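Allow me, if you will, to draw on your knowledge of protein folds for a short while. I have a record of one protein: its chain in single-letter code and its fold written as discrete structure tokens. Could you please explain, in whatever detail you think fit, how the structure tokens follow from the sequence? The record follows directly beneath this note:
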Amino acid sequence: MNTYLGAAQDLHPKDIDADIVTVAQIVYLEGYLWDPPHAKEAFLKAAKIAHDAERDVALTLSDAFCVDRYRAEFLDLIRTGTVDLVFANERELHSLYLTADFDGAVSALRNDARAAVVTRSGRGCVVITREETDAVPAYPVERVVDATGAGDGLCGAD
């Protein structure tokens, strides 16, 4: 997969519409867009507006290479409560905490985030809160052809 951010890479704080943010139940931030400086400013502006309106802010870590570049910043967003809900896959979680120990990484995430969902490919996902971790099995399919976008589909499901 070759990520192409298109016009989204030009996201600027002036593009954030407070009226739209305040009516959204969850504001979803994309880790791929943490590269452009103006996008960072836009994320932080949207998060503040959302929290002032008592809305939640979600962040997807997007890819292990994003986590490798911005580990400290992502952890700060999570630990300071700028982000309420974290979406990650297993590889991104390992990268975030620099460990191959899944249970240890889940424990660390539990301490840092209010809530998180970690996808585990054919093993489904785990939903993590400060109080508990619930494993959700994957729906069995006969043959997976291409899993591209599966995590995005999960995040967009209601």
Remarks:
- Residues 10-136 form a domain with the UDP-N-acetylmuramoyl-L-alanine:D-glutamate ligase fold (CATH 3.40.1190.20).
- The CA atoms of residues 47 and 57 lie 6 Å apart.
- DSSP finds six helices and six strands in the chain.
- The first helix runs from residue 18 to 23.
